[in-house]
Write a structure and sequence with these properties.
This protein has a single domain, classed as Formyl transferase, N-terminal domain (Rossmann fold, 3-Layer(aba) Sandwich), CATH 3.40.50. It has 210 residues and is of the alpha/beta class. The protein has 6 helices and 9 strands, in the order βαβαβαβαβαββαββ. Helix 5 packs across helix 6. The mean pLDDT is 97. It binds 5-O-phosphono-beta-D-ribofuranosylamine. Residues 8, 10-15, 44, 88-89, 109, 111, 124, 173, 181 line the site of 5-O-phosphono-beta-D-ribofuranosylamine.
C-alpha cells in the first residue's frame, strides 16, 4: 500500500482529483494518510474531512520563525510516515530538511510546461497571466519531482493545453486544471504506486511499460 501525504494551501481541486481517482479505482494500492495545509482556512481541508482523511494545519503564523515552522512541517510529515508526498497547490517553499528526508519522494504539479513559465513568481494565476502576456499558443501542466531548486526536479508527466483567442487568465487556468492538472496528478501517483517510475543518473525519469 502506497502511503501518500498531500500538502495543500487553497481550494484543493487537485486533492479532490486524487480523492476521486482513488474512489473510482483509478489508482491502485494507495492511501492518502494525511492532508497537510499551511492555511487553516484552506477549503482543501474541508475536502479531506468530507473524504474521511485526516487534515492537519501547520501554519507559519503559529511559529516564531521559519526554522521552527520548517521543523514542525518535517515532524508532521514524518509522523504520517508517507512513501510519497504530493504538493497539490502547496504555496510554501519546501524546506531543505524535508527534501533531504524525502529525497525523490516528493512530486509537485506546476500549471505550465516546465522549463517554460516556472521558477520564482510563477505560481497560481500569475503563471497564466504570463503565458497570455507572452502570446504563447500552447501551455499545459507538469508533474515533476521536487529538489532544492524551485520547479527544477526531474519531470515525470506533462500534458499540453491549447491557448485560445480571448482567454483570460482565469479561463485559461480552469482549462489547464480540467484538461491537464486533474489528469496528470492521479496518473503520476498511479505510476509510482505501480513501481513503474525510475530516475536515471542524468536525473531523467523513465516509465516502465505496465
Ligand atoms: C492551481 O493553479 C495549481 O496549478 C497550483 O495551485 C493552484 C491551486 O490548486 N499548483 P488547488 O485547486 O488548490 O489544487
Amino acid at each position: 500500500m502506497l502511503r501518500v501525504a498531500v500538502c495543500v494551501s487553497g481550494g484543493g481541486t487537485n486533492l479532490q482529483a486524487i480523492i476521486d481517482a482513488l474512489r473510482d479505482g483509478k489508482i491502485a494500492n494507495t492511501q492518502i494518510v494525511r492532508v497537510i495545509s499551511n492555511n487553516r482556512n484552506a477549503y482543501a481541508l474541508e475536502r479531506a474531512k468530507a473524504a474521511g482523511i485526516e487534515g492537519v494545519c501547520v501554519s507559519p503564523r503559529d511559529y516564531e520563525n521559519r526554522d521552527l515552522f520548517n521543523d514542525a512541517l518535517l515532524a508532521c510529515l514524518k509522523e504520517a510516515d508517507p512513501d510519497l508526498i504530493v504538493l497539490a497547490g502547496f504555496m510554501v517553499a519546501v524546506p531543505a530538511c524535508v527534501i533531504a528526508e524525502f529525497r525523490d519522494k516528493i512530486i509537485n504539479i506546476h500549471p505550465a510546461l516546465i522549463p517554460s513559465f516556472c521558477g520564482k513568481g510563477y505560481y497560481g494565476l500569475h503563471v497564466h497571466e504570463k503565458v497570455l502576456a507572452r502570446g504563447a499558443k500552447v501551455t499545459g501542466a507538469t508533474v515533476h519531482f521536487v529538489d532544492e531548486d524551485l520547479d527544477h526536479g526531474p519531470i515525470l508527466l506533462q500534458k499540453a493545453v491549447e491557448v485560445r483567442e480571448g482567454d483570460t487568465p482565469e479561463v485559461l487556468q480552469r482549462r489547464v486544471m480540467e484538461e491537464a492538472e486533474w489528469i496528470l496528478l492521479p496518473s503520476a501517483i498511479s505510476l509510482i504506486a505501480q513501481g513503474r517510475v525510475t530516475i536515471d543518473d542524468n536525473r531523467i525519469t523513465h516509465i516502465k511499460e505496465s
